Amino acid sequence: MLASLARVAALRRTGLFSRRGGGTGLWTGRPQSDTDNVKPLEGVKILDLTRLLAGPFATMNLGDLGAEVIKVERPGAGDDTRTWGPPFVGTESTYFLSVNRNKKSIAVNIKDPKGVKIVKELAAVCDVFVENYVPGKLSAMGLGYEDIDKIAPHIVYCSITGYGQTGPLSQRAGYDAVASAVSGLMHITGPEGITQITTELVLIDYLLYMNLESLKIQLQFDSMTYLNHSRYR
């Protein structure tokens, strides 16, 4: 799949594969590098409205593959993980630096209409929009799937939740450890008879490949894609 995405990227750079719709993402067909050492996602632009681990880890991998990732943080404190530690590098959390490498960062107050306008302007020139808010939170601010679809119909919109968009548990936050416990994965991890332990499997790894596959489809057919990824199904 990654090889297929790379081929689509190469076609766009040579101008042989152009966007049919009115999207304004960065796939312009122009060369993105002066060398032949081009990464598979070079030229793809990601708008990252995620925090903690799930989203930042997925977009970190996209950045490692060459995508330009713009991380939106709250003014003042920024992402909560900026203070996670030890260890620290100076005053900066090594955890934060690790999962947010290869990214640009901008402080935007998305609770303010001016901040919402800024995020929409960024979304209009991006290829992927990733968020991990509790369902309904971004929609209430004017940044839900339907809102972004109006100004960026070309984009891949990815939501990461604990329990999905609907249902009795949808308003609960979730982490990989919670999903491992609720699903029973902890119960079958480790030797029999010992206290349940967390698994080494990071469930959110799969989100990276969901984003890549949807991005490939979006590039080929120029249609907006909505990914709804929940840790526990």
UniProtKB/TrEMBL annotation:
One of its GO terms (molecular function) is succinate-hydroxymethylglutarate CoA-transferase activity. Keywords: Transferase. The lineage of its organism: Eukaryota, Metazoa, Chordata, Craniata, Vertebrata. InterPro entries: CoA-transferase_III_domain (IPR050483), CoA-Trfase_fam_III (IPR003673), CoA-Trfase_III_dom_1_sf (IPR023606). The keyword Transferase applies. Pfam families: CoA_transf_3. The keyword Transferase applies. PANTHER family: SUCCINATE--HYDROXYMETHYLGLUTARATE COA-TRANSFERASE (PTHR48207:SF3). This is Succinate--hydroxymethylglutarate CoA-transferase. Belongs to the CoA-transferase III family. GO terms for cellular component: mitochondrion.
